[in-house]
Amino acid sequence: MTTELIESAIRELETYNKQGESYTNATGRYGWRNPIRADTGDLLRVLTIAANPARVLEIGAGHGLSTLYLASGLASHENCSIDTIEFDPGVAESTQQRMNDCKVPVKVHAGDAIDVIGTLSGHYDIIFFDAQKDKYYDHLKALIDRQLTGPGSIILADNVTDRRVECQPFLDWFVDEGINHFILPTECGLLVAQL
């Protein structure tokens, strides 16, 4: 991986409007895409460095800002990869091109997260949730049911404070299962847990 290319792409994407953009897909499904806040990127990088993962899964790639922060945490590791899911096919395509240009080992999967999760295999060491907040719980359960995550996996989830109501079933699961977790006081709230 080329650190200079990653950092250059991060700087470009950090200029995107943090309030995000709305979108409607071909089936009329409405959504909202906004990049992670400035205080979250470096945390993703440091947590990835500390965890030294072989495989990372991101649910909600957008234009790839958080993906690049995760990738920057892998820069000194060999044989690691990131799978990321982006709902909008056009955005997924441009994000994959950005990852290719940065020479990072990222595969962007286009489609609904539940559908894409159904096609994945193997164990992920880190999973970062940043898609539809009211689907976090469903995505987590699907990952567990397919054995894509399990003991030792690190779970990261953005927007658990500013979008708490939508995230509540997801947050309740950690309490109900007795999973040690905490929420870093970022602008939007970043959950960190280890299964």
Summarize the structure.
The protein contains seven helices and nine strands.
Strand residues, percent? 15-25%
- Order of H and E elements: HEEHEHEHEHEHEHEE
The helix content is 25-40%
Mind telling me the CATH class? Alpha Beta
Please give the order of strands in the largest beta sheet: 5-4-3-6-7-9-8
Give me the CATH fold name: Rossmann fold
Please compute the radius of gyration using only Cα atoms: 15 Å
Q: What is the annotated CATH architecture?
A: 3-Layer(aba) Sandwich
Topology, number of strands:
9
Shape by Cα distribution:
globular
Labels describing this entry:
9 strands, 195 residues, seven-stranded mixed β-sheet
Task: Set out the fold topology.
Elements (H helix, E strand, L loop, with lengths): L2 H11 L7 E4 L5 E4 L4 H14 L3 E5 L5 H10 L6 E6 L2 H13 L4 E5 L2 H5 L8 E4 L6 H10 L8 E5 L5 H13 L4 E4 L5 E5 L1
Parallel strand pairs: 3-4, 3-6, 4-5, 6-7
Antiparallel strand pairs: 1-2, 7-9, 8-9
Descriptive report:
This protein is an alpha/beta fold and 195 residues long. It has a single domain, classed as 3-Layer(aba) Sandwich (Rossmann fold), CATH 3.40.50.150. Helices cover 39% and strands 22% of the residues. The protein has 7 helices and 9 strands, in the order H-E-E-H-E-H-E-H-E-H-E-H-E-H-E-E. It has helices at residues 3-13, 38-51, 65-74, 89-101, 113-117, 136-145, 164-176; strands at 21-24, 30-33, 55-59, 81-86, 106-110, 126-129, 154-158, 181-184, 190-194. The strands form 2 sheets. A 7-stranded mixed beta sheet has the order 5-4-3-6-7-9-8. A hairpin with a 5-residue loop joins strand 1 (21-24) and strand 2 (30-33). The protein is globular. The model has no long low-confidence stretch (mean pLDDT 89).
